[in-house]
Amino acid sequence: MTDPLIHPHETLTTRTGERVAIDADMVPVIRELWRLGYTTTACCQDVGEATAGVRAKRDTPLGYGGEAFIAYHRGWALLKMPIPDAMRFVALLAKAPAFADHVSHPWRPGSWRMNVPLEPDGLSEAALLHFPRQQLPQLVDTLRQQ
Known about the structure:
This protein is of the alpha+beta class.
């Protein structure tokens, strides 16, 4: 199997001692989230680019990630968090002037796409938070002020 990591990354150590690879542009966000006591379970600095990269490296096709998926997700970062942490995080951002509109009003330019996938036994335990990658520096600044 090929290396699934597409973006440049850095290895960080979680509070539980696990070593995890984090996309380089996501490292400051993840560090701040961890400092504030949030749990993250996955992240990506550009979902469309990563999906295209994974497809290009594989000998067999992915079960997802066609051209439309890739085009739709280019330029979008991802945070995956347990639902309680995601809700607390979004509530924090809703009070921050730089992000209040982005997390409170879906489908506007710059708004976040937030969902909890359905699974056969109910809802997933984690929420998926997609947001424009260009917001990463401002997100780090907002988190550092907390």
